[in-house]
Amino acid sequence: MLQAVGMPDLDGLFSTIPDACKRTDTLDIPELTEWELNDHMAALAGQMVSSADYKMFAGAGSYQHYIPEVTRYLLSRSEFVTAYTPYQPEISQGTLQGIFEYQTLICRLLGMDVANASLYDGAMAVAEALLMAIRIGRRKKTVAVSSLVNPYYRKVVETYFAPTEFTITWLPYRKDGTTDLSGLDQIEGLAGVAVQSPNFFGCIEDLEAAGKAIHAQDAIFITCFSEPLAYGVLKAPGALDADIVCGEGQSLGIPQSFGGPGLGIFAAKQQYVRNLPGRLVGQTVDADGKRGFVLTLSTREQHIRREKATSNICSNQSLCAMAAGMYMAALGGTGFRELASLNHDKAEYLKAALQAAGLEVPFASATFNEFVVKFPEGFDQRWQDLLQKKILAGIPMVCYYPELANHYLLCVTETRSKDDMDALVKEVQS
Amino acid sequence: MKETVGTRGLILNEPFLWERGGKGRTGYSLPRRDVAAAALPENLTGDGPDFPDLSEVEVVRHYTRLSTWNYGVDSGMYPLGSCTMKYNPKTNERQAALTGFSGAHPLVPSELCQGALQLIYELEHYLAHVAGLDAVSVQPSAGAQGELAGMLIFAAYHRDRGKPRSKILIPDTAHGTNPASAALCGFKAVPVETGPDGVLLPASVEALMDDDTAGIMVTNPNTLGLFETHIQAIADIIHAKDGLVYADGANMNAVMGVVDFGRAGVDVLHINLHKTFSTPHGGGGPGSGPVCVCKRLEPFLPAPRVVKTEAGYALSEDFPKSIGKLHAFYGNFGIMVRAYSYMLSMGPKLKDVSQHAVLNANYIKEKLKDVYHLPFDRPCMHECVFTDKFLEARGVTTLDVAKRLIDYGFHPPTIYFPLVVHGAIMIEPTESESLENIDQFIATMRRIAQEAEEDPTLLKEAPQNPKVRRMDETTAARKPCLRG
Questions:
Q1: What is the pLDDT at residue A53?
Q2: Which of B37, B326, B379, B464 has a 20 to 30 A CA-CA distance from B291?
Q3: Same domain, yes or no, for B327 and B362?
Q4: B205 shares its domain with B333
Q5: Are residues B380 and B451 in the same domain?
Q6: Do B106 and B200 reside in the same domain of the chain?
Q7: Domain check: are B234 and B301 in the same one?
Q8: B340 and B368 co-located in one domain
Q9: B421 plus B337 within the same structural domain
């Protein structure tokens, strides 16, 4: 081969690179055999608390749900795993139909007209939604975001807004654990408002009232979520007039994996379709009139519009969207609703048991599978002790809301048994 | 030519999910109910989603059939330029699936996630070493977010010096994500024309660089597959006006163990783990786009960052100049595990990877340049760019060549990119292909060129073998049908 390219040796291939740019050392990275790698990785993984052997009562944006074997198995089909973005539709129909079905099921779950093929995660989805509201609002330069939107999502929103001329107003929360929207009429040039439901306290927002209040200001109504399973039992936001619905889809068959990869879900009303960020799969026909699918409306995207694109996103979370599609298909409508009910009912059981044990649940609004509990002064030491017993008794809220010392956000999914919950109640009582 | 890979075979039809199934079927086993039902306020509850109910076997057949309509690296050669479709080692999947990693909650105290923190810390260290830069954050979720991180760092750096700038230089060969990422940061993209040899000339940069320009975004090796020979001189021009140099490292697979980007004058570089470091593309993601910086820009990296302390590894938010957070947690950790696994499997042999990737591309370039027009006839890096100029007389285009390749069992190269080359055919074989595969690809490309001469309809009507033929993309865009 070297002869064919007219080079004396492999180094000759790099003769166009100036010597001053070349490195003089050898790469200093260990080289392991497959055997050594397995040992090394097992040792690292062994230093992790995994949800499998701890009793986790932690959610806050990452949820422990059972992943049916069928999802895991099908997702490992290497035709899905090792394909690129479907630029050549004739040999990418598997990914394309799979994503088209994902878009459809997401629309059905959220009651929306259109959903894109995915964004990176829930946090980035909220940031993109707010930027989209600014695009739609044209000369309006302000967005308002509930302080009960996941604090990490809010941080990402701040990052995306930092270099822009647009401002963010943070909306306070009310005593019942929902967003206070009463000050919206005081905000000048309001392009959009984002609330989260269930919100970071686990409380379900009154989206119908929120929509009316937001639309009264002629602003785009954005509602987001970190736990889409809730929409197995809750009213779909689309039915409550939401303009954009977005959030994190990790709950839909995706491993927690230390926070990523997850799935940025993004859906909107039909009228905003040409303002959507990210890829879209559309149905069409081939030269013989046979049904097929392609990436479409790409004139919104960076590879065509460049600096005028609706977003800079290129690669998304396609395989995670496939996983979500498989998960929703495996559960079906009936299973999805039953699983959602079970999550809610278990959380209600723990909430009632903790209240019966004398603990305070400070926010009165209805919740799904997460809720805030106020523990007695000095509980932080007890919380540490419980870790030794392999119980993670919720996420401390004081890091996010300084006024909420001794408040913890507890989460119960289908993976927690009644026995687990009884054990937790007993421990926090003693 | 030996027998081709492409052939006809039985392909099964498969309807939509919702055209299958029946009420009450399920492919999921719910845990036994051990608590009583509890009521939710009626005004909040809905009817539940209108999903089809399917049995497990229906779900399995559905997705198995769909998968057979796809072409992946595991199916065959995938010479998609600029995308680095190399083989994805299966051990990476094993490591990412370890329960300790896949089942880890991101918000546990640091003493309970030392394994993940150590992995991130070491991966960042190894990536910095390969890049020749000083510090790395693996938080960006994909290449475009790595670019965004880079541009946010540019903006933060100039703001920190009290002199915000409004423009950014971007060569006309750049990926579309470059101007889009820069625009998100409020920078106005100023295009720089590529020189006659396919590389940037310092004079063109000098003519445009001024005190209101934040710096330059260069893809190196560039999208023509050429190394930007004048990168140091260009960096000097930019630095002389207090600007910064950003390198898009999408094409890092060409230069591992060869180029030191720090010495080349680069200040910020992003790397695509899903290209160079063998993590699978997944039909369009998830990827991971670490951002690497020189020492003076380290304070601006995304936070939190993993730091090493006497008590072990910890997450630190103590970076007051940080551009902030880009991901709800720490990025696409599962992808990092795969890339880390790959780096440790390869060690110093990462240099061999680049040598073979470049050798393969040059070999293809030499073996095809008599039948396909080569706009820049000089040694290339890991990819080579041809055009359809020689085929024009027969009315055959790049698209026709690409579609005909499908019939022969190859994934087509990247087409019509970079935009500066009319009818571009951008071929990136990667190091993964054997000489036999590459020879067969070359023979196929030559045969297609011959077909273009003798019977262009074979190309015009291609592909014939896949499940569907050419798609009506115009109607798809004019009358969008985005859901069933």
A1: 81
A2: B379
A3: no
A4: yes
A5: yes
A6: yes
A7: yes
A8: no
A9: no
Residue B317 is assigned to a structural domain of this protein = yes
Q: Could you tell me the pLDDT band of residue A359, with boundaries at 50, 70 and 90?
A: very high
Question: What pLDDT is stored for residue B1 in this prediction?
Answer: 61
What pTM was estimated for this model as a whole? Answer: 0.98
Residue A290 has pLDDT above 80, yes or no: yes
For residue A398, is pLDDT > 90?
yes
Question: Which of the following CATH numbers is that of domain A69-327: 1.10.10.10, 3.40.50.20, 3.30.70.3270, 3.40.640.10?
Answer: 3.40.640.10
Asked if B328 and B382 sit in the same domain, the reply is no
Measure the N-to-C terminal CA separation of chain B; round to a whole number of Å.
Answer: 45
Domain harbouring B409, CATH code: 3.90.1150.10
Residues of chain A numbered 312-351 and touching chain B (CB < 8 Å) = 312-320, 322, 325-326, 328-342, 344-346, 348-349
Cβ pair A11, B356 in contact under 8 A: no
Where are chain A's structural domains?
A: 55-67+332-429, 69-327
A234 touches chain B (CB under 8 A): yes
- Cβ of residue B99 closer than 8 Å to a chain A Cβ: yes
Express each pLDDT in B118-155 by its tens digit.
999 999 999 999 999 999 999 999 999 999 999 999 99
Q: Which of residues 111-170 of A touch B (CB under 8 A)?
A: 113-115, 117-118, 120-124, 150, 152-153, 155-156, 158-160, 162-165
Q: Is A88 close to B68, i.e. CB distance below 8 A? A: no
Please state the domain count of chain B: 2
The CATH number given to whatever domain includes residue B254 is: 3.40.640.10
Prediction ipTM score: 0.98
Tokens of B369: 């340049």
Domain containing residue B191: 93-348
> Per-residue pLDDT for A266 more than 90?
yes
Looking at the predicted structure, is the pLDDT value of residue A50 above 80? Answer: no
Q: Is CATH 3.90.1150.10 what the domain over A55-67+332-429 is classified as, yes or no?
A: yes
At residue A91, the pLDDT reads 97
Q: Do A1 and B435 touch (CB under 8 A)?
A: yes
Residues of A in contact with B16 (CB under 8 A): 97, 101, 104
B327 with A29: Cβ contact below 8 A: no
> Per-residue confidence at B2, pLDDT binned at 50, 70, 90?
low
Supply the mean pLDDT for chain A. 96
pLDDT over 90 (residue B429): yes
